[in-house]
Amino acid sequence: MGQIRLYIAQPLTVGSEVVLNEQQSHYLTHVMKLKVGDTISCFDNQSGEYGCTLIAVGKKQTTLKVLEHHKPYAQTPDIWLLFAPVKKDNTDFIIQKATELGVRKIIPVQTRYTITERIKRERFEAQAIEAAEQCRRVDLPQIAEIKKFDDILQQWDKTRILYYMDETLTGKPIAQALENAKSCAILVGPEGGFSAEELEKLRGLSFARAVCLGPRILRAETAVVSALSCWQALKGDWQ
Question: Which of 74, 162, 198, 213 allows an S-S link to 194, with CB 3.0 to 4.6 Å?
Answer without folding.
Answer: 198
